Amino acid sequence: MMNKKIAFRTLGCRLNQYETDAIASSFHKHQYEIVDFEQDADVYVINTCTVTNQGDQKSRQEINKALKKGKDPVVLVTGCMVNNYKEKLDNFNGVSYFIENSHKKSIFNVIDAHYKGETLSPADLQPDIFGFEPAEKTFHTRSMIKIQDGCDNFCTFCIVPKVRGRATSRPVEDIKDNIRKVLDFGYKEVVMTGVNIGRYNFEGTNFEQLVEEILEIPGDFRVRISSIEPEGFGDRLFKLFQHPKLTPHLHLCLQSGSDKILLKMRRMYNLKTFLGMTEKLKSRYPDFNLTTDIIVGFPGESEEEFQKSCKVARDVGFSHIHTFKYSVRNGTRAARMDEQIPEKIKNERSRIIREISIENKLKYQQSLIGQDQRVLVEKINSGGIARGYGEHYVPLEFKTNLKETNQFADVRPYDIRKGKNPILLGRQL
Length: 429
What we know:
Blueprint: E1 5-10, H1 14-29, E2 33-35, E3 43-48, H2 53-67, E4 74-79, H3 80-84, E5 97-99, H4 107-115, E6 143-146, E7 148-149, H5 160-164, E8 168-169, H6 172-185, E9 189-193, E10 201-202, E11 205-206, H7 207-215, E12 222-225, H8 235-240, E13 249-251, H9 259-265, H10 271-284, E14 289-296, H11 303-316, E15 320-325, H12 343-368, E16 373-380, E17 385-389, E18 395-399, E19 408-417, E20 423-428
Parallel strand pairs: 1-2, 1-3, 3-4, 4-5, 6-9, 9-12, 13-14, 14-15, 18-20
Antiparallel strand pairs: 7-8, 10-11, 16-17, 16-19, 17-18, 19-20
Helix pairs in contact: 11-12
């Protein structure tokens, strides 16, 4: 087993990234060599995404890429596409195993049994969405921490409740124990992740209370909240950003700047509520970094309603906007709606939002020039140029004498390297 090589490809959300990290770490513990997905390997694990048609397409491409590798590798496919297309999986001739989300933690056992000449059937696997071991060996400098899974919102465009199930929260002590262990492994930043983390509630402990308890864990580390829906939490969370460990950044999902479209999407908030949150954050913390998601081309989205999204994007000044063209997902209510938008219009609206995003990013980065950042170093090249993210989740590049990554460095930004992906340039203090 010492010579077995395994490669991973992860598509989609941070929750998938967390799960891949945990799975890869279990293989590392058992002496598998983890190699790049483009290299030859004995085992390929593809953790798929099915939120959009593009996610499906990319997932299929990666599966086919693995199947074309030489030496007849074991190809294991897991993730949301497996849950979404159970009846069509036989179309992927040559895939060794399909593992649903609820059984992901058993992937090592499946592969281990394979090399012992055994086969584990789905009936042999115990479903457990929180049973992952803390990941010591990961693909990231930051450690993802899964606190929640599933969703009860049933937005009309979304199939997540189908592929991830109903909302379930992880026990508080399990989360805190996971964090303590990864801190012992040497991680300096933990990222709280899940499907709808703002709705976290375990035996009376809600999301804000969970964050409070995490912030009290001893150690020199920082906490980042990943993508969160603009509902299910309140002012108590905003006050917590005064804590030096909690990074001043939220990815607060907007989806549309039109109340009419938000209602058709069955979102749990209106524009006034959303803007009230952003205004409170910006008034308390002027440098707070807000990023978001926007869907363009939702059924019935007029030009006027699209322009409302553009206005909100500019007014709030989101420093990054994940732009999604509405994607028809069978089994959702939006797929049956009239007034589907032509692809050409979706493409143009997507282009406009992306341009606004770049403009906003430059403005926000410009506002940080001269303001010291505590950067978690992720890469250092042979010329001594380091790169990482400051507490505001903005990338910085700077000259350093540091020899190892996963360290904090105090950096003062002095300029911006402009382009499609602008980056702050700084000097280490």
